[in-house]
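Work Package 3 (structural annotation) set out to generate three-dimensional models for the target panel prioritized at the project kickoff. During this period the team completed the workflow that converts sequence records into discrete structure tokens, so that structures can be stored uniformly alongside our sequence database. As a representative example, we reproduce one entry of 402 residues exactly as it appears in the project archive.
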Amino acid sequence: MNPNLSRLHPYPFEKLAKLKAGVVPRQDLSAISLGIGEPKHPSPAFVKQVIAENLDRLANYPTTGGMPELRETIANWATGRFKLTAGTLTAEAHVVPVNGTREGIFSLVQALIDNTKPAVVVSPNPFYQIYEGAALLAGATPHYLACDGSNGFVPDFGAVPEPVWKDCQILFLCSPGNPSGAVISRETLAQVIDLADRHDFVVASDECYSELYPDESRPPEGLLQACAALGRDDYARCIVFHSLSKRSNLPGMRSGFVAGDAGILKDYLRYRTYHGSAMPVQHQLASIAAWQDEDHVRENRAAYRAKFEAVVPILQQVMNVDFPDAGFYLWPETPGIDDETFARELSAQQNVHVLPGRYLSRSVAGYNPGENRVRMALVAPLEECVEAAHRIVTFVKGFERS
């Protein structure tokens, strides 16, 4: 067996299951899950229709690079969405469809890492677990950058020691962030691009929450957009990941893309021909329909906006919590209760389920930036989210009295 398998940590939900082993929630209250970031809004009917109309394509092998029509649709969407210079993000050289961002992130790391020399993968902390797992299985060493309230939940890249940058081969960004929802500014992205140029590493930006934002007039900027603003139309050393899972409520379709530096993607596509993870043809056709439509995405944003506007004021009665820049998570502090106790007892007393923040983070020098916070995913229907917020208020007030 690959010896690096022993380096993997249990996934957060394995830890949560162990934490709640033996807990019996109140049976007079219905269960409300805010723990898993799985969209619950309806999938677009027109997307399902495309799949249904093309089930005969199950008889066709999909190509590794994806259909030209899909790559063209993605290139057009990204160019318009992120204000890229026309013609610089091409379907042929700059876009690779993948089976969701998790698969794309994992496979890209395996293709990029050169473990014949010291290899460091720099990651935000807290982080999406696949950043770490992909690094470990590629034989690299993760280096974690704390994201907490002191820095607006964005890493302080200027504080990273030079030896770390010297051995860095990949820097992961997550903007909007999971779990904080923080959006990295154009100025900070420019700083990161300059660091990549000076130290010759790849910036890999996970932007799968980029289409869930509160202000229709102010969509979050992305890494390729920062490149365009700097006149870097070759997108050198820059890679982005996008997905239909959150944008279009299609997590089960496993459809996303990787875009950016053409030189990197040329070799990545060669890796994928052996990796053998091509997207089914009927899903490619459905993805074209999804990327070409914005009406359902605006409706999706409006639904999340209504939930945040209803839930945050209720929770603010008992918790330090605010509206995120984007995404569908809340990242509140747990008042006078550690995050594990909060999650376990909230489950037992109110049948509301959240994720302890420490499970999304690693301790560095005795400090875990996720401790005493919990992640709440506002994916349930509005009425359930409001009910959950009221139960949390009841729980916190009862805990304070005990």
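Residues 45-292 form a domain with the Aspartate Aminotransferase; domain 2 fold (CATH 3.40.640.10).
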